[in-house]
Amino acid sequence: MATSIPPAPSAPGQLPRPSLSQTVDVETPELVVLSYTLAGVGSRATAALIDYAICIATFVAVIIAVLQLQVKFGVAASRDSSGAWVMALLGVIQFAILWLYYVLFEALADGQTPGKRIMKLRVVKDGGLSVTFEASAIRNIVRAIDLQPIFLYAVGLVTIMSNARGKRLGDMAAGTIVVKEDLVSQPVTPRRSSRADARADTSKPVPLSARLTDAEFQLLDRFVQRRMEFDAERRTQLAAGLAHRFSAKLTQDPAQLPIAQLVRLHDTELAARAQGAAARNDTGAAREKHRIVATNAPRWASFANTLKSAQGGGLSTLGEDGVRRFVQDYREMTADLARLRTATRGQESSDLFYLNRLVAGAHSLLYRRRTFTLRRLITFLFADVPAEVRASGLPIAIAATLLFGPMAIAARAVITHPSVAATLLPQGMLARAAKGVEDAKRGKGYIEDPEVYRPMMASQIATNNVQVTFVAFAGGMTAGLLTCWALVMNGVSIGAALGLYISKGIGSLIFSFIAPHGVLELTAIVLAGAAGLLLASGMLVPGNRTRRAALVQRGGRAFRLLAGAVFLLLFAGVIEGFVSPNATLSLQTKLAVSATSAVVLAIYLFYRPRAALPATARLAP
């Protein structure tokens, strides 16, 4: 009867490469290939659940605070504006929990949310470098598509499992991967049993080759390590089978049982490998692999301890001299990794896996992204964003057509046939228009909310509009279908509302409300739509690039358009909350605000100082 030896647990001091784990290779600036272990669906899901729990707990705390403040300020809101300001602030906090939790943690904590930190996961760029704010924002805004349907994350799970690099749609757009970051805490110094130590004779030269191949030694090693787990009969059967297989390598001593001969052979082979002897049948560079490990294992262990300390507190904890030594050691480690990879000839090895994890950890630490500064933010908003707007004329023109075309058609349809409004608009808008006829006669404005509520209004309007632009951007990952739908439906809604008020003879009522903020808000909608279309073009029309490279490159460009849209919406929200509903301001005054915003917007987008020309040049596709 054939016998087999069950897989053994890892030997002390060794870490076997996970056989079921997916890995991805990246090349460092030192031209050394690193293998990262991709995070599995289970660990990512667990990290997500932890983050969800944190978000929900924070959200509940905010809701409780809102309810308490409503009790305190609600009745006296007309006399005390502090309550409205607090409510507005809480609205912004809720928005931040929903959209900014992941972005800020990943961008500021080097790719780790609290959930990912607990699960020892990290988001990195495809090249192994630290994730940037831009990449973090892109992957987490596209989460709006990944979590469909209704927070069940079915889209994300399907794409992760069907992608060789475990990417969801957000990772594809951002050019990121999620990797495991377990650092081996024990060095891989080859094991030597006490029996082998006792028999070692340092006066004898190290043998050039061991008597067993690596595969044979692994088989023997598994048996010796687990022999006591078998009952006596099973142990005897396995020992007899192995003794027959290794008969030519065993010391033929009739006084010894087969199991004793196998243990002695194991100790001899273990001692030889610990001193760097090559395995039998190894040729060329492969003969060096055990010697590389035996010679350098102490230095690797020391580097592992330094790396663990630096990962906990940053490179600054090492001091100037320590950082200099760390960089020097890192370069030596990359050379060791290249030599060991050549010696193992691409085969899986616990030593190679261990050394790869050390170098990968140091690589991520050394090439961590620069600190985000106020100066960089200003450069981004006032140089990069306008430059991208000027460079993206085609998607902007298409987005404008999809917005203003349906807007004009819907407005004309409702003006010509007012009954069409009931099909295109919700009942609430129809009722507001009917009431608007009477309000216009009394000299009232489009909205008659008390002035004290305007901070809260501005907060709600701004956060809602920003979320709409996020959806339009993320819709680019549906090949642009969701983006086009969002633009068309927004155009129809706005056009139908305008047509309804005009058909009732109160067009000035809605124009006086829209005019102050309309220029900024409509421009922002167009930019967000253009961002989604630009993202979709990376999937549909990659040009000379691969589809993956085009998607990442245009995703970065699209993010700049989206950032411009959000920037404009912040100002539009303030104007819509404080100026647009103010009935004491005349239509001429509001038109003047509109004209001023248009002039400022034109200067912002199209004024090209000489210093901005390099920014434009680097955006060329």
Automatic annotation (TrEMBL):
Compartments, record wording: Membrane
UniProt keyword Nucleotide-binding present: no
UniProt entry tagged with the keyword Transmembrane helix: yes
Superkingdom in the source lineage: Bacteria
Membrane topology classification: Multi-pass membrane protein
UniProt-annotated stretches for the region Disordered: 1-20
Main localisation: membrane
Alphabetized Pfam families for the sequence: RDD, SpoIIM
Keywords for the protein's UniProt record, in alphabetical order: Membrane, Transmembrane, Transmembrane helix
InterPro entries named in the record: RDD (IPR010432), SpoIIM-like (IPR002798)
GO cellular component: membrane
Record field: compositional bias (Pro residues): 1-10
Domain RDD stretches: 38-175
Transmembrane segments: 49-71, 83-104, 468-488, 495-516, 522-541, 561-579, 591-607
Name of this protein: RDD domain-containing protein
Species of provenance: Gemmatimonas groenlandica
